[in-house]
Design goal:
The protein is 56% helix and 1% strand. The radius of gyration is 27 Å and the shape is globular. It is mainly alpha-helical and 861 residues long. Residues 1-36, 39-45, 428-434 and 837-861 have low confidence and may be disordered. A two-stranded antiparallel ribbon has the order 1-2. A two-stranded antiparallel sheet has the order 3-4. The chain has 35 helices and four strands. Among the domains are: 1-20 and 29-48 and 579-693, no CATH class; 360-557, no CATH class; 698-852, Glycosyltransferase (Alpha/alpha barrel), CATH 1.50.10.20.
Length: 861
């Protein structure tokens, strides 16, 4: 898996500008411009959040306390973590700042009132009293004023109502009051049922849930200036169902434990099944409801309703309102592929996007804590970050331990940090595609930022131009140069143009949470900006965005998303599983829709920088899902790949002319295999590159992974993806495969598993990525032992847990837990474990099978 270091940018709103006909926002292609592979100006389409969302976020965080809706640090933090400004940006991507702030405040008001009933434990009668007071506000004459003694919710609603009704069409006020009254009645009914311990049947629950989710009132606010369209009420109700059921799936593990009524619990009771089966049933209902919406949504007037549906789903993916936790429990008899398939079905949201959150890391958490301290802001967030780092210290790696100590004890570490850094293993600068020195410079730069350790003149990287490099490299080099110049007391060592370019880069992509999805790059850039522009708006905005990205464990993730890459990897694994195949068309349509102008794909929605890894994964997936339907996207992607290939037959990760990478080259072979006849010469060179990269022991460079089996799987799959006419090349492939198989057989542990390296303990990911190689080319007995190992480690929710094997910036691992599930599914399928297998006993397998077609090879990150 390739290094992750970058962000968004995907509409004329990206730079906060409205594009005029014939003109382009700065840094974006003009009509007629020829997009180049890897060109960082390329923009992925669709799914854009309003670039002014951070302004709306500030407004709502100030408005709610001012009206008494939140009090104290804990309530303020809960409000901030929910991200109502971000929600408003998703619901109204074209709204002006004032309208966006109003929408954010409506979202916060509705959520805080609703949460007050849930957390406050009040009686239905008390809730009725509060809601009747609110309904009175909606029916009061214009100009009604409320005293300071009025309840906070009343005063807050009066403020909202005054600003909302002025821009509404005739008749809208009455309609909104009817919707809010329906919500109030449903809320009181829900509280009464809970107090009485009564449960509704499935149909009654669905009808009530549609009324309590508050989508219809919020949608009314969005639509208040548009012509009435009563004929679309059915479409609005369908959107409300989609948002409600998605929310129930996300909150079910917590709510089932609390005893709160939830769609999953209702389905489990209705069908007499486990929560896992009920969740899978709910996911199927949700898919059908999405299809209902798409069939009914016709014409321009339906567009705002679709935007609210899709925006609500996007916000639910990002918000901490329902943080990820335990999955849905399943019975002991519900294990193997069926339980795993049900577990994975819920990991794909209604839009077809794989939903997962990157695990927290020390590097980014320490950099954020250091920056907050220097700015003197967010004391509560600082305390939580300190606690996170202290919890990580006992089991920290050498690099992490150094970073934690430098951050938490800067006075003592200022003189010691460089010496400790010099003693770190050589792996800190290995496998970095020729960038080992830059990685070492970045480590010393980070240590200086954390504890003030000295920097040497030779540490500053040379200036580079903006062309032919990635967005990340541009920011990293600029940041390192600026920090070094400041530290050495030589500000003239960098030019004003370099400082301006850094500010310009960080000002782009404001529609995302993190700049180019990367907390690392975002933080390094902000630290550098602080040295010469401590009052810059980009610094204030960046801190707000980074704090919003903090995980539930109070640490900072490396990335805020790699949704396109994950969706492609998942979709390819799903194509062979009956229970998951129904979700594939929507996943494929989403991937095809997010293709960038240069024909490639970025690893996360809204990023500007495309890459070979994500592009090849997306191509494999679209070939497997529906090659004729997505022929245009595949043609454009083929042009991207063939143009970025190097003269040595290899493919780089990011931009043409960069150092070729084994993993990228293998991926390119797999992606182009369906068109092998047309690109025989190119593929022959790529196969030779892969063969030349093999070491005598059968392994390959682990550039974007820490697992031997991951690199072996990708390379061996590539070697067998296309027919070869040369007997010599065929013989080399046979010999290379035998060496890799021999290596895997020799390094399999007595428990049947593999570790990331031969001396490491067995883990699920390393084992799952070894199994397909041996299933296709090796010993069935070894495969049977490995399958037994995997099934014995299946979690109670049907999923799997493993140490991460992706790295970025290399060699630091980062964790997307769903990958253990996806690779295990592919492993069990390659071992021909049937879909109805529900056993933990050893499996008797057939002999080695021939190499799969490219469509059947899910590969590995």
């Amino acid at each position: 898996m390739r290094e992750r270091v970058p962000g968004p940018g995907s509409s004329t709103l990206d730079a906060g500008l409205v594009e005029e006909p014939g003109r382009s926002a700065p840094g974006f292609p003009r009509a007629g411009d020829r997009a180049r592979p890897g060109d960082r100006r390329d923009v992925a389409a669709a799914a854009v959040c309003n670039a002014e969302w951070a302004h709306a976020e500030r407004q709502v965080r100030a408005w709610a306390p001012r009206h008494g809706l939140v009090a104290g640090d804990e309530e303020s933090r809960r409000l901030a973590r929910t991200g109502h400004g971000r929600m408003a940006g998703w619901l109204a991507p074209g709204a002006a700042p004032a309208e966006l702030a109003l929408l954010a405040q409506w979202g916060a008001f509705i959520a805080l009132v609703d949460d007050g009933f849930d957390r406050g434990g009040g009686s239905p009668r008390e809730a009725r009293t509060v809601l009747d007071q609110l309904l009175d506000v909606l029916g009061a004459p214009d100009g009604t004023r409320y005293p300071a003694s009025a309840p906070p919710a009343v005063r807050a609603l009066a403020d909202l109502w005054d600003r909302t009704r002025t821009a509404a069409r005739p008749g809208w006020r009455r309609r909104f009051r009817e919707l809010y009254e329906d919500f109030a009645d449903a809320t009181v009914t829900e509280l009464r049922l809970r107090a009485e311990g009564r449960h509704l049947g499935l149909d009654a629950y669905l009808a009530l849930r549609r009324r309590t989710i508050t989508v219809l009132p919020v949608l009314a606010v969005v639509e208040r200036g548009l012509p009435a369209a009563d004929r679309l009420d059915g479409l609005r109700e369908t959107a409300a169902d989609i948002v409600a059921w998605t929310n129930d799936l996300r909150s079910a593990p917590r709510e089932l434990e609390e005893g709160t009524e939830n769609l999953v619990g209702v389905l489990a009771r209705h069908h007499g099944c486990s929560p896992s089966r009920a969740a899978s049933t709910a996911r199927g209902m949700l898919a059908r409801r999405m299809d209902d919406f798409d069939r009914a949504a016709r014409g321009d007037r339906a567009a705002p309703i679709r935007q609210v549906r899709d925006g609500s789903l996007a916000w639910q993916r990002e918000t901490h309102r329902n943080p990820p936790g335990e999955g849905f429990s399943t019975g002991e008899h519900e294990r193997g592929v069926p339980a795993l398939a049900r577990h994975l079905a819920v990991a794909v949201d209604a839009a077809g996007q794989v939903d997962d959150r990157c695990g927290s890391r020390v590097l980014e958490s320490a950099l954020l804590l250091s920056l907050l301290r220097k700015q003197g802001v967010e004391p509560g967030e600082q305390e939580r970050l300190v606690r996170f780092l202290r919890r990580r210290r006992p089991d920290a790696s050498g690099v992490d331990a150094l970073l934690i100590d430098a951050c938490l004890d800067p006075a003592r570490m200022a003189d010691r940090a460089p010496e400790r850094a010099a003693r770190l293993p050589v792996t800190v600068s290995s496998g970095t595609a020729g960038r080992g020195r830059l990685k070492s410079v970045m480590l010393r730069t980070v240590l200086h930022l954390l504890c003030g350790s000295a920097l040497e003149d030779g540490d500053a990287p040379a200036p580079v131009g903006p062309e032919g490099i990635t967005t990340f490299t541009d920011v990293h080099v600029l940041s390192a140069r600026i920090v070094h110049a400041h530290a050495r007391g030589r500000p003239h060592a960098v030019t004003g143009a370099e400082r301006s370019r850094l500010l310009s880069l960080l000002s782009l992509g404001r529609n995302r949470v993190l700049w180019e999805a990367s907390a690392t790059t975002h933080l390094l850039g902000l630290h550098a900006v602080r040295t010469f522009r401590p009052d810059a708006q980009v610094l204030d905005d960046g801190l707000l965005r980074l704090c919003l990205a903090v995980n539930a464990d109070d640490g900072v993730p490396f990335l805020d998303s790699q949704d396109l890459w994950l969706t492609a990897v998942a979709g390819l694994a799903f194509t062979g599983v009956d229970a998951l195949a129904p979700y594939v068309p929507r996943m494929a349509a989403l991937v095809a829709d997010r293709q960038a102008a240069d024909g490639g794909w970025p690893f996360a929605t809204g990023m500007r920088q495309t890459d070979v890894d994500t592009t090849t994964r997306c191509m494999e997936f679209l070939h497997a899902a529906a090659p004729h339907r997505h022929g245009g996207a595949l043609d454009r992607a083929t042009g991207y790949l063939t143009a970025i290939a190097g003269p040595d037959g290899g493919f780089p990760t990011w931009v043409r002319g960069d150092t070729a990478d084994l993993d990228m080259t293998a991926g390119a072979v797999l992606a182009l295999a369906p068109r092998a006849a047309r690109y025989e010469r190119l593929l022959t060179g790529a196969l030779a590159f892969v063969l030349d990269a093999q070491r005598p022991d059968g392994t390959f460079e682990r550039s974007w992974t820490v697992s031997e089996s991951s690199a072996i799987l990708r390379a061996v799959d590539a070697l067998h993806a296309v027919p070869v006419a040369s007997a010599r090349l065929a013989a080399r492939i046979t010999a290379a495969t035998a060496r890799s198989v021999t290596r895997l057989l020799a390094t399999q542990h007595p428990d049947g598993g593999w570790g990331q390296l031969p001396d490491d303990p067995s883990d699920v990911l390393s084992t799952a990525q070894a199994v397909p190689v041996l299933a296709r080319h090796g010993d069935p007995i070894s495969v049977s032992r490995a399958v037994t190992y995997l099934l014995a480690r299946q979690d109670a929710d049907g999923g799997f847990t493993s140490p991460p094997d992706q790295v970025g910036p290399r060699p630091l691992p980062f964790d997307y837990p769903v990958l253990a599930d996806l690779h295990t599914l592919s492993a069990l399928r390659s071992a021909r474990l049937p879909d109805d297998t529900a056993t933990r006993t050893p499996v008797t397998l057939p002999g080695p099978s021939p190499a799969p077609s490219p469509r059947g090879s899910p590969g590995s990150p």
